[in-house]
Structures are given as structure tokens and as C-alpha cells.
Write a structure and sequence with these properties.
The complex is a heterodimer. By secondary structure, chain A is mainly α. Chain A is built from 20 helices and 2 strands. Chain A has helices at 3-17, 21-27, 29-45, 51-55, 78-101, 108-127, 131-149, 155-186, 201-214, 223-226, 232-241, 243-258, 263-286, 290-311, 314-345, 361-375, 381-395, 399-424, 437-455, 458-471, and strands at residues 60-65, 71-76. In chain A, a hairpin with a 5-residue loop joins strand 1 and strand 2. Chain B has a domain at 550-620. The chains are: A mainly alpha, B mainly alpha.
């Protein structure tokens, strides 16, 4: 198979395939599950074949002219390949976990359709080399995300879904204005035509609205904790695999790979990122709802990813790319552990939980491992990504920013260990049993992967380095 | 031996850890056999490496200068040997003391993982693997403390967060140093601590002394003395962390930065050292639990090491490093003997113990030797290294630091007189039933360490010539003499006489307190405890006012609350209240405009038409 074909299949198998899921649902429940799993599996497997190509540092552009001078253009380079592997793989694991978690709910046809469409659109966005197509996939994701957050048709929950949709949609529209402004300057939407162009500060601001709203960065972040009303699988998908990684990916693709931004922004964005990280960590310390804590923790960690990209040193960029992987694995693990706990106890306030390590030891240990990875403790994967981001920040000369980022890491340590102690240790407050086999398998697997990604860090690091080299046109 | 052999001290313990966790709990002898045997093999290789002293191995790891680079040289070989020795003794001891612990598989796994991480950190010649192994120790320490008991998790979290804070400081320091020097290879770095480099120096020192357990990062140690198993205390805070922390501190001051005598940074270090000595020993003096008392000494003694290294004069530095290995030996021995008492008597409360010398003579002997060594009694090892530190402090000209060290010496001896008197001397306690002496796997480590304390004191030429002096080679100015052993045991010089005087004062202080308390040894420190002003300070300390962790957590909670209430919630209110209110007002306005009257709509249409015409004419002009 040619590289282009693999990428086209990676995008269109899930996007088109998702609409066949309701048909499979007509046949039987298990046919739908198997079919969804197959679609997710294919999406996860296909990009793996691109790894050898990515490691050579190659770059392929696929282009088909369409009406109105718009091209359907795909960019296949180490950055997009890395991102698609991480997203589709974590997405696949979440579909696997869903089989147990969602089995007793209504509207499963819609659920699987939206999840697979979600992952497919992510693939489309990642490989798009045209701002308009990026925007298109961006909004498809917003729509499926809206349906998924409002999956339980409780009025309050639907309102939260509306909130998420409105905030991200507002951001995306403002971003579109930024795209239009750039078009006014360059007469092009094609990223490859515009590499190295200096864009005005106003366009940066407009586009940042889109990225920050999607990646839930302060001050456009509060929809994400509220989106915790969704099924835990959906929250895991939003936090770990797909949604919040869009903004950071777009940052790397647009502000690093393509454009040059004014120096003032280069200094301001690291501060915004680290401030967002700190405020979110503070909120996570105050909250007592299990899923809201984890949601704020995501906001906080996204700040690190933005930080590494925004300082634009090779270590920082590689660190942020690794961060996407490590955070994806560990945060998916944390949410899915939370899912096991919530499924078993029917409670969400951590003050009402306790002693669960006795009845669900595997989930407890997996949670702890993933928490250590998020904190950034060796030998788990999160250590390397956080370390590289910090080092990259210092090397860019932003020592105070790095100091605040490390302080935030201490806060992260504090609240995650507090959650672990309250939920899993101490006196048992409610009877609970371990989750179903597929659920426990997935959380254990994610914990093992978080460890493996740390011990075998040299492999993902190689890919991240190649991607960094491909991004950094200003160093060539 | 070849370069890849350097992986053995890292991977062999990992393999043993995996085996230990895989063997079922019931198969006791196999697990213990493999553990003891493995530690013997490691000890052998520790010795073999020490005889080679020169080996390197390097592979690319993360790229961009972040290599997996290991280097064996004199200093790291010495630390490696020390770590292997303590691992062997602790493993042997654990076969008896830890045999009935519920999570025994995890215990052995954590102990050997700790050894692997510590060996890796010692051998690393690149900061990235160094931090990798160094910070990894947080995990195993967390695990080991939780094995202790019901409330141990709180202490485990405390140790983790304090350690994490210090490690993160070190990461920042390393990053700054990388920015300045452009390299991560330890053996290539040597800068003057000025400007940004001074910031890096301080941050890295926080990492080193945090690991060594100096003030103010020590507060988990006394808590762990109660909550964690005693073998963990003997292994980690008493021995391993001292070796690692002081090793790294010595590397910082000798290699990475050229610390100069009486520079500001040197004085900062000496101040930290002196404060740690005095404040921790004051806390140790009034403790009423055997293990907790020892734990404060584990803090206080770090002060001597930091003070010695901070003097930046050869005899002081050598004294600091010598004190490190001496302290590791006698403090490990002391914790193990307290464990032996706990093992047989079931308690370590001084009040409940007494007169145990009859039934546990060997434990009592081991304790006595180690206690006299830590107190700096001639001719034991503690005397030699403390004298060297005193000499170094006097040589800097800042007598105040020497005085602080002497005050520490007085109170150290006084508190050990109290502890030894309460536990082993005096009338036999009625609270403890008749007991036997502990088994030999418990006694062998204690007596070995006691023997080493005598050996390193009487025959101090062996450690000083064999271990310490080569470390300083290349770091002293030409012509400066490097032979510390010739006068090491000299009693007739002013400094040694002051030290001896301190011991006499301590003895008198103890006897006075003992008499005053109605011959109850465990209350012998009460005169100091009840002394005006000091009593108030003690009360504040008991309420954890000075505990950096308690205050830090309060600060984190306060800050979180403030940021949450002042930034996060107002932002959310804008979306929840502001946006909806604006939306409602806007739709309300439109609703009001749609009255249903024909004339009204006509007016709107004409108005719109005029507006469109106006814009078009404006554009056409």
C-alpha cells in the first residue's frame, strides 16, 4: 500500500464506516460491538505502517483540486503520523473498554457512531494541510462531542453539552476569522504555501481563541470539567485521545510548522500556558468530584504541552510531543479507573469513598501508576515528557516560567496523591467490586503502557525527534 | 571487566526485585535465600569494582546530549561499595525482622529496586539518567513506608511530596546548568558559582540536602520512625540517603561548581549545616520514643557533613565525607539495635523499657559502641570525623560554626546517655515480660557495624587513605598536605580538648536531669525541656509550627482556594451567568421588536432598505 492510500483509509474508514454502525446495530448488539471495534482497530492499526516512513523524516503531500480553488490536501509527515498513532490507539482502547461500560445504556447506536466519527474526524484534522479542511473536521468533532457529552438525556447534562458546544464553536468561529485574515494576506489556505510567513499578531490572537477553547485552556476551560457529566468513556476520549489534543496539535501545525508569529506572542504564550496550568491545578486541589478533579488535571497538563511548543526549543517541542503520548496513556488510565470506581460505587464525591484497594487492587494500582506518570515520576513515561518541557523552557531563557511549571508539578503531586489516598486507602465506606474483565484489562494495559513508555522511551523519542526536526524550519 | 558490566549493579537488583514479587508469599526460604545471595553477589561486585575504579559505558538514549552514560571512578566506586554493604546487612536482618509482615513480597521488591536506583544514580555520568534514578527513589520509599502500618500512608505521602519538591528544584538547577555549560556530562562540568550559576548551585544543593534529610526538608523522617518498618529506617534515611545526598553534595561543591572558602555560598552551606545540627539535636533530646529519638539524630548528623563540606577546606571536606560513611554505619547500627529491642520487647517507648542489658547483652553492646561513636567518644570513628569537621570550621575563621557543632556534640551525647540509660541500664522494666536475645541474623549486622565503627576509629588510616583522601586529589592547592590520619586520634590539642569537655558537660547534664527526675532516665532531658523560652519553642515545634510540610500544605490549600475563587469561578460565572444574560437580553429585545403589527414590520423593512442603500452608495462612492 502506498503512503497516501494508508492515510486516506485511516481517515475514511472511520468517517464513512461510522454511519454503517446503526445498520450493524439493526442486526444485533454484538454485531455492532464487533463492527465498531473493527473500525476502531483498523484506524489504530493503519498508521502503524507509516512508522518506518516517519522515521526517515519523509514528507508527502497528497493533493486533489476541488471547486472554488480549494484543494483537498493532506500532509503526511512525522508530526501527523505521530499524532494519529497516539489518538487512534488510545481511541481504540476506549472503544474496547466501552463494551463493558456502556453495555446497559440506551442509544448505543448513536454512541458508537459518534465515537468512531469522532476518531475519524480527528484523523482527518491531523492530516489536513489546508486550513479550511482543518476547520471542517474541527467542527465535525464539535458536533459529535456535543452529542456524546449529552449522552444521558438529563436536562442538566444536555445544558452542559450545549455549553461545551457553544464555547468550542465560538472559539472555532473566531479562529476562522483569523484564517480569513491570513487569507487576506497570503491569498492561500494551503499550509505548504505559507511556511515561514510572519502573520500579524491579531491573527494569532483570533486563532488562539480556537485552540484554547478546544484544548480547554484558561480562560476558555470551564466547559471541560462540566463535560464530566458524560459517560466516563466519553470523558476519557475527550481528555486523553482526541478532543483536547486538537488545540495543541493545531498549535504545532499552524504556529510552529507553518507560520512565524510576532516576538511579543512568543514571550506571552508561555506565561499564558503556565498560568493556565497553575490555575487548573489549584482548582483540582479544591474540587471534590472525582471526574472534575481529573478534568482540571487535564487542563493543567495541557498547559505543559502548550508551554513546550510555545518556547519552540527542540527539547521543548520533543517534550510536548512525548507529552501528548504519555498524557494520553496516563489520563485515559486515570479516567477509566475513575469509571470503574464510579460504576461500582455509584458515587462521584471522593469524600464518600475509601478503602477500595482491598476490593479492587488492580484498578487501584493502575490508578497510582497513571497518577505517577501524570505527576512526572520516573520510571514512568510522564517523567521524560515533563522533564523535557521544563528543560526546553529553561533553555529558551524562561527560567521563571519553568519555576512556576515545577511548582505546579508539586501541586499536581499533592492533589493526585490526595485523591488516591481518599478513594483507595483508609476505611471502606461503601461496598464495591472490581470492574468487568474488559474494563480492568484496559486500565491495567494503560498502566503497563505508561511504564513501558518510560522504560522504552528511546523509541517514541526517536519519532518525536524526527518530527521536531521536520517542524523546526527556522533551524534549517 | 568491561563497560557493560556496569549495568550489573542496576539490573541484578531489578531482577531480584521481580523474582521477589513473583514468588508466592508462603515460599519464604527461597525468597530470602535469593535475596541474601543476590546481595552477597552485589557486595562482591561492589568490592571488585572498587579495585578497578575506572570503567565507563555509554549509549545514546534520548539524543541531544541526553545519553545513558555510566562512569565508575574512585568516588562512585566507594559509594557503590558502601551501598552494597548496607544492602547485604539489611537483607540479612530482614530475614528475621520482616518475616511476618503481610506485604513481604513487596518489601523485598522495593528494597532491591531502591538498591538498583541508588546504584544507577551513583554510576550516572549524565544528569538525565542521574535524575531518572534519583527521582525514582521517591517511589520505592513511598512503597516501603506504606508497608509500615495503618497510618503510614500519611507519612509516605509526606516523604513523597517533600522529596518531590527537592527533586524538582534539582531538575531546575540541572536545566539551568545545562543552559550555561551546554553539556549534561557530569565529568565535563566545572563552573564558578556566580550569577545564574549560583542559582543553579542553590537549587541543586536543595536536591542534595533534601535527599540527605537536612533541615528544613527532614520532617518526614521522625514521622517515618514511628510509621515505617525499622529496617527501612536503618536502610534509607540512616544509610542510603546519606550516602547519596552527601555524595551528590560533594560532587556539586567539588566538581560542578568551584566552591571557594568563605564565599557567600559556602557560608550559606555552613549555616544550613550548623542550624541542622543544633535544631535537630534539641528535638532529639526530648524524645520519649527510642526510634524517634534516633531519627532526629539522623537529621542532626547531616549537619556535620554539610558543615564540613561547606567549609571548603580540605580537612573539613574530608571530614564531612568521612562523617557520611561513619554516620551511615553507626546510625544504621543504632536503628537495627532499636529494631532488635522492638523485635523482642514489642515496644520502643523509653518509659516502658529498662534494664535490658541482662537479657540482650549483645544488642546492648552494639548499641553502646554505635552510641559512643555518634557522640564522638575517643577512639571511635565518630571522634575522628567530628574532629576533622571542627578543625575545618575553625580554619574558616567563623568560630560560631564550630561552637554550634560543639553544642550539637553536648546534646548528642546527653540524649544517647538518656536513651542507653533508659533502655539498657537501670532497674528491669516491669512492663516487658522476660525476653531472649535476638537471633543471629539480627545480631550479625549490628555487631558488624559496631566492629566497623571501632575499626574506622582506631585504624582510621584505612578509610582515610583508602576511601577519602583520593576523592580530594586534584581539588587541593599544590603543596597542601593531604594526610589527615597522622593526627586523627590526637587528644592533646585545643580543639580535641574542647570536644572532650563537651562530653563531660553532657555527662553532668544527664546526671543532673536523672537525679532531678527521681532517677527516671527517660525524664533526664526535662530540665532542658522545661527551661524558660526553650519550653515555648518546644511547644510550638510539637504543634508542628516549624514543619515545612504542614505549613507548605496549608499554603498550597490557601493558594488553591484563592486561585479557584478569584480566577476559575469568576471565569465560569461569565459563561454561566454573563453569556446567558446577554443572550436572554438580546432575544428579549428582538422579541419586543416583533409586535405582530403590520405597520411595525413595514417600518423595519423601510429602515433596512434605507440602510442597505446607504451602505451601497457609500461603497460605490
Amino acid at each position: 500500500m502506498s503512503t497516501e492510500l494508508i492515510v486516506l483509509l485511516t481517515i475514511f474508514i472511520p468517517v464513512i464506516g461510522s454511519f454503517t454502525i446503526p445498520i450493524a446495530g439493526r442486526i444485533s448488539k454484538s454485531a455492532r460491538s464487533v463492527w465498531s471495534l473493527l473500525l476502531g482497530g483498523a484506524t489504530a492499526a493503519l498508521p502503524l505502517f507509516l512508522i518506518p516512513f516517519a522515521l526517515t523524516g519523509g514528507q508527502v503531500i497528497f493533493r486533489r483540486p476541488l471547486a472554488l480553488g480549494l484543494d483537498f490536501a493532506l500532509i503526511i509527515d512525522p508530526l501527523s503520523i505521530f499524532m494519529s498513532i497516539v489518538s487512534s490507539f488510545v481511541g481504540f482502547l476506549i472503544i474496547l473498554y466501552s463494551l463493558g461500560y456502556i453495555a446497559h445504556e440506551d442509544n448505543q447506536n448513536e454512541y458508537y457512531l459518534m465515537v468512531v466519527l469522532f476518531i475519524g474526524s480527528m484523523m482527518g484534522l491531523v492530516y489536513s494541510s489546508n486550513l479550511i479542511f482543518m476547520y471542517l473536521f474541527w467542527e465535525i468533532i464539535a458536533i459529535s462531542c456535543w452529542r456524546l457529552i449529552g449522552f444521558y438525556r438529563v436536562k442538566e447534562y444536555v445544558l452542559k453539552a450545549d455549553k461545551a458546544f457553544l464555547v468550542t464553536f465560538f472559539g472555532a468561529v473566531v479562529m476562522l476569522l483569523g484564517f480569513v485574515q491570513i487569507y487576506g494576506n497570503t491569498q492561500s489556505f494551503d499550509l505548504m504555501d505559507m511556511r515561514g510567513t510572519l502573520i500579524p499578531g491579531s491573527a494569532v490572537l483570533l486563532i488562539l481563541f480556537g485552540m484554547f477553547s478546544k484544548s480547554a485552556t484558561v480562560p476558555l476551560h470551564t466547559w471541560l470539567p462540566d463535560a464530566g457529566v458524560a459517560p466516563t468513556t466519553v470523558t476519557a476520549l475527550l481528555h486523553a485521545a482526541v478532543l483536547v489534543k486538537i488545540g495543541v496539535y493545531a498549535y504545532a501545525r499552524i504556529f510552529l510548522f507553518t507560520f512565524d508569529i510576532p516576538p511579543g506572542w512568543k514571550e506571552a504564550i508561555p506565561w499564558i500556558a503556565v498560568a493556565s496550568s497553575l490555575v487548573a491545578a489549584a482548582a483540582a486541589t479544591v474540587e471534590t468530584d472525582f471526574k472534575r478533579i481529573l478534568a482540571y488535571s487535564t487542563v493543567s497538563q495541557i498547559g505543559y504541552i502548550f508551554l513546550g511548543f510555545s518556547v519552540a526549543t527542540p527539547d521543548g517541542i520533543s517534550g510536548s510531543l512525548l507529552f501528548i503520548l504519555m498524557h494520553g496513556l496516563a489520563k485515559a488510565g486515570l479516567f477509566l479507573c475513575a469509571g470503574v470506581v464510579i460504576h461500582a460505587t455509584h458515587k462521584r464525591d471522593i469524600r464518600e469513598m475509601g478503602g477500595l484497594i482491598k476490593t479492587m487492587p488492580l484498578t487501584a494500582v493502575s490508578f497510582l501508576v497513571c497518577a505517577f506518570s501524570v505527576i512526572g515520576i520516573p520510571p514512568f513515561g510522564g517523567f521524560f515528557s515533563k522533564f523535557l518541557v521544563i528543560v526546553g523552557t529553561v533553555k529558551a531563557g524562561a527560567i521563571w516560567v519553568a519555576a512556576v511549571a515545577l511548582f505546579t508539578a508539586v501541586l499536581t503531586m499533592f492533589y493526585l496523591l490526595k485523591v488516591f489516598s481518599q478513594v483507595f486507602l483508609g476505611e471502606a465506606k461503601a461496598a464495591a467490586h472490581e470492574g468487568t474483565r474488559s474494563m480492568v484489562f484496559v486500565v491495567t494495559l494503560l498502566a503497563v503502557l505508561s511504564l513501558a513508555a518510560g522504560i522504552l522511551v528511546a523509541y517514541p523519542m526517536k519519532l518525536a525527534e524526527v518530527a521536531t526536526a521536520g517542524i523546526s524550519w527556522w533551524l534549517k | 571487566m568491561t563497560g557493560p558490566m556496569l549495568l550489573l549493579p542496576i539490573f541484578l537488583p531489578v531482577a531480584i526485585a521481580l523474582i521477589a514479587i513473583l514468588i508466592p508469599s508462603r515460599v519464604r526460604y527461597v525468597r530470602e535465600g535469593i535475596s541474601v545471595l543476590g546481595s552477597v553477589v552485589l557486595l562482591y561486585f561492589g568490592y571488585a569494582f572498587f579495585t578497578i575504579k575506572d570503567l565507563t559505558w555509554k549509549v545514546s538514549w534520548l539524543g541531544n546530549g541526553m545519553d545513558f552514560d555510566l562512569r565508575l571512578y574512585h568516588f562512585s566506586a566507594f559509594i557503590l561499595l558502601g551501598l552494597a554493604g548496607f544492602l547485604f546487612l539489611i537483607t540479612l536482618y530482614s530475614t528475621v525482622k520482616m518475616k511476618n509482615v503481610p506485604r513481604v513480597r513487596e518489601y523485598y521488591a522495593y528494597v532491591f529496586l531502591t538498591a538498583a536506583f541508588a546504584n544507577g544514580a551513583t554510576l550516572s555520568n549524565n544528569f538525565v539518567p542521574l535524575i531518572f534514578f534519583w527521582e525514582g527513589l521517591l517511589l520505592t520509599l513511598y512503597g516501603l513506608i506504606t508497608i509500615g502500618g495503618k497510618d503510614s500512608n500519611r507519612t509516605a505521602v509526606k516523604s513523597f511530596i517533600l522529596g518531590g519538591f527537592c527533586d524538582f528544584s534539582m531538575i531546575l538547577g540541572v536545566a539551568i546548568l545545562w543552559k550555561i555549560t551546554g553539556t549534561l556530562t557530569l565529568s565535563e562540568i566545572s563552573v564558578k558559582p556566580e550569577g545564574l550559576a549560583a542559582v543553579s548551585f542553590i537549587l541543586m544543593v536543595i536536591g542534595a540536602i533534601g535527599k540527605a534529610g537536612a533541615m528544613p526538608f527532614h520532617t518526614w523522617i521522625p514521622d517515618a520512625a514511628i510509621d515505617a518498618p525499622v529496617s527501612v529506617m536503618a536502610f534509607i534515611p540512616a544509610a542510603l540517603e546519606k550516602l547519596l545526598g552527601i555524595y551528590f553534595l560533594a560532587r556539586i561543591t567539588l566538581d560542578f561548581f568551584q566552591l571557594e572558602k568563605n564565599s557567600t555560598l559556602a557560608i550559606v552551606l555552613m549555616t544550613i549545616g550548623a542550624a541542622t545540627i543544633v535544631l535537630a539535636v534539641f528535638m532529639a533530646l526530648i524524645q520519649k520514643d527510642f526510634k524517634r529519638l534516633l531519627s532526629y539524630h539522623a537529621v542532626s548528623q547531616v549537619g556535620y557533613m554539610i558543615l564540613g563540606i561547606g567549609t571548603a577546606v580540605p580537612i573539613g571536606i574530608a571530614g564531612g565525607i568521612f562523617h557520611m560513611i561513619n554516620h551511615a554505619m553507626y546510625k544504621c547500627g543504632l536503628f537495627l539495635s532499636s529494631g532488635s529491642v522492638e523485635h523482642r520487647c514489642g515496644t520502643t517507648e523509653l518509659k516502658k523499657l529498662g534494664g535490658m542489658r541482662q537479657e540482650m547483652p549483645l544488642t546492648a553492646f552494639g548499641f553502646a559502641v554505635c552510641a559512643l561513636a555518634i557522640s564522638g567518644v575517643w577512639p571511635l570513628n565518630g571522634f575522628v570525623s567530628k574532629e576533622m569537621v571542627f578543625h575545618g570550621a575553625v580554619e574558616t575563621g567563623y568560630i560560631v560554626f564550630a561552637i554550634a557543632a560543639w553544642v550539637g556534640a553536648i546534646l548528642t551525647f546527653a540524649s544517647f546517655l538518656k536513651a542507653g540509660h533508659s533502655v539498657f541500664l537501670g532497674p528491669r522494666s516491669q512492663d516487658v515480660p522476660a525476653v531472649k536475645e535476638s537471633e543471629s541474623p539480627v545480631l550479625i549486622p549490628i555487631l558488624t557495624l559496631a566492629g566497623l565503627c571501632i575499626l574506622f576509629g582506631v585504624y582510621n588510616k584505612l578509610p582515610l587513605k583508602g576511601f577519602i583522601e583520593p576523592i580530594l586529589e586534584g581539588h587541593v592547592e599544590a603543596g597542601e598536605h593531604l594526610d589527615f590520619s597522622s593526627h586523627a586520634l590526637a587528644l592533646f590539642n585545643p580543639i580535641a580538648l574542647i570536644s572532650v569537655g563537651c562530653l563531660v558537660i553532657a555527662l553532668l547534664l544527664h546526671l543532673y536531669g536523672w537525679r532531678k527526675a527521681g532517677q527516671k532516665a527517660y525524664l533526664a532531658s526535662e530540665p532542658v525541656h522545661k527551661f524558660p523560652v526553650i519550653k515555648q519553642i518546644y511547644d510550638l515545634a510539637e504543634r508542628r509550627i516549624f514543619d515545612i510540610y504542614e505549613q507548605g500544605v496549608r499554603f498550597l490549600k490557601w493558594l488553591s482556594g484563592v486561585l479557584f475563587k478569584l480566577i476559575d469561578r469568576p471565569i465560569d460565572a461569565v459563561y454561566e451567568k454573563g453569556v446567558t444574560a446577554v443572550g436572554r437580553a438580546f432575544t428579549g429585545l428582538l422579541q419586543a421588536a416583533h409586535t405582530g403589527h403590520y405597520a411595525n414590520y413595514l417600518a423595519w423593512s423601510i429602515g433596512g432598505l434605507l440602510a442597505v442603500a446607504g451602505i451601497i452608495s457609500l461603497l460605490l462612492r
